[in-house]
Amino acid sequence: MGKLQNYKTLWPKGTVSCIGSVMIDLLQAAILGIVEGITEFLPISSTGHLILTTHLLGIAQTEFAKTFEIAIQLGAILSVVVLYWRRLFIDRDVFKKVVVAFLPTAVLGFGFYKLIKKFLLGNSSVVLWSLFLGGVFLIIFELIHKENKDGDNDLSTISYKQSFLIGIFQSIAMVPGVSRSAATIIGGLSLGLKRRVVVEFSFLLAVPTMLAATGLDMMKNFHTFSSAQFDSLLVGFVISFISAMLGIKFLIAFIRNHSFVLFGIYRIILVIFFWFFGGN
């Protein structure tokens, strides 16, 4: 598999943010914000899509580009806070279960932060293989999985043990392209939870997970950003927030009558497209 081809695009003058030898402008930031918001909660890997999109836009994977891809996830996470603030902050039982589920990723993410950012983020080969294998697994899982139709359709049904195990599944998604959403949803379904319950729990679990990932990265790199780079971050943040609101509503409506097989097929088709047309 060859290196993904960079597609050069002319952008309006005066909207450019310098990233070393790379230029990211506000239009590119908006595109990345749309991609992040739409894909964050779908089982197709938002990080993988961001990495592939930066390749298509001709944006090199510098330290700022990697941080940008992490930071704009805050916009998507804010959409969960707006839609589920009662569950997250008022329901103490649900809040404690989210914290328990967050622990495995917190420990592993902190321990492997440097390794992940240096060798995995920005690696298109890792992303494509993760997307492809994850798509195949998602299809196979859905074909053999039998959902419990009699279970309660409420977050209160999740036990602390199940919460922790879902957190372990989520930690697998530290590999770009796996999809945090797919990992947590498959984990929850395999534990016998109903589809809507595990999807909503996945939404809530994204809040501490992405806050921690973004906060850690921003603390380490905050001092290196220029004012123009903050402009790009702001645009990506706002656009991802709006897009994520739509993405959440879409997924909740989608799972009422559909499995995740279509997402698995999409992942495979996307990878095949890049293998045949995105490399040299």
Could you please describe the fold and organization of this structure?
With 280 residues, this protein is mainly alpha-helical. The chain has one domain (22-277). Helix content is 70%, strand content 3%. It has helices at residues 26-39, 46-56, 63-71, 73-89, 92-111, 113-120, 124-144, 160-171, 180-190, 195-221, 227-254, 261-277, and strands at 16-19, 22-25. Helix 1 (26-39) packs antiparallel against helix 2, helix 2 (46-56) packs antiparallel against helix 7 (124-144) and helix 7 (124-144) packs antiparallel against helix 12. The longest helix has 28 residues, at 227-254.
Brief summary:
The chain has helices at residues 26-39, 46-56, 63-71, 73-89, 92-111, 113-120, 124-144, 160-171, 180-190, 195-221, 227-254, 261-277, and strands at residues 16-19, 22-25. The protein is mostly helical. The chain has a two-stranded antiparallel ribbon with strand order 1-2.
Question: Widest sheet: strand order?
Answer: 1-2
Instruction: Please give the largest β-sheet.
Output: 2 strands, antiparallel
- Count every helix, treating DSSP H or I runs of 4 or more residues as helices: 12
Q: What's the helix-strand series? A: EEHHHHHHHHHHHH
What is the number of E strands? Answer: 2
Radius of gyration: 18 Å
Structural class: mainly alpha
